[in-house]
Amino acid sequence: MITSLQDTTKLANGIQMPWFGLGVFKVEEGPELVNAIKFAIKQGYRSIDTAAIYENEEGVGQAIREGIKETGISREELFITSKVWNSDLGYESTIAAYDASLKKLGLDYLDLYLIHWPVEGKFKEAWRALETLYKEGRVKAIGVSNFQVHHLKELIKDAEINPMVNQVEYHPRLTQKEVQTFCKEHHIQLEAWSPLMQGQLLDHPLLQEIAKSYNKTVAQIILRWDLQNGVVTIPKSTKEQRILANANIFDFELNAEDMERINRLNDNYRVGPDPDNFDF
């Protein structure tokens, strides 16, 4: 059982990745972003997930530096993720994008660097760049985001190093069982973005019923369900109360029947773009 914010899963290369973290998708640069991350770090969060396209890496870096200073923890205790955007996919351009992200973040290395979307004809060269960064010791772990099974097969076919993480849209209405099974078979850790379906699941009658029986919120039930399915999760929030509540999921466990009831909600519904049909 995962029992704390500091609990980790071991990636294929032996690196320890926190099961739970803070996402900052679409959070603009400024005090709200910095304060949210610093608050999360003070409450025990150790994983922060950003991306070049979020345009907030400088603020994330500032928050990390201030959070370290104010809490006394070390950089090594944090797990920082960023992602290369579609327009930078390519060998040289991906390495340049990594350098740009590091500069904005003010860090010497990232714990995890991901290819953000599987742009056909481009992601293989980008992956070669990630392999170079990894072999040079400039990044602790490398992976992908939004890759379906056929993308993963295509990548692995020519890769020297398999992805260690695949971050995908994952929530009770989109469980991606085929992707999850493939990742498990190939020692790729699945990670959830939009685990709460951008808030659209909070009024769901079944989830409300289950939440009431555990004396928890619907969000807490979903986030616990993620972890018990072996999925790393990074809910986004800038509200202190929500950041605290999201992390209050380590004092209970969903029983097998309730896990299955939630699993059955899957109807392959996406709130984000389809990885096989996106245009950006």
From TrEMBL:
<dbReference type="InterPro" id="IPR020471">
    <property type="entry name" value="AKR"/>
</dbReference>
<dbReference type="InterPro" id="IPR018170">
    <property type="entry name" value="Aldo/ket_reductase_CS"/>
</dbReference>
<dbReference type="InterPro" id="IPR044500">
    <property type="entry name" value="AKR5G"/>
</dbReference>
<feature type="domain" description="NADP-dependent oxidoreductase">
    <location>
        <begin position="31"/>
        <end position="266"/>
    </location>
</feature>
<protein>
    <submittedName>
        <fullName>Diketogulonate reductase-like aldo/keto reductase</fullName>
    </submittedName>
</protein>
<dbReference type="InterPro" id="IPR023210">
    <property type="entry name" value="NADP_OxRdtase_dom"/>
</dbReference>
<dbReference type="InterPro" id="IPR036812">
    <property type="entry name" value="NAD(P)_OxRdtase_dom_sf"/>
</dbReference>
<dbReference type="Pfam" id="PF00248">
    <property type="entry name" value="Aldo_ket_red"/>
</dbReference>
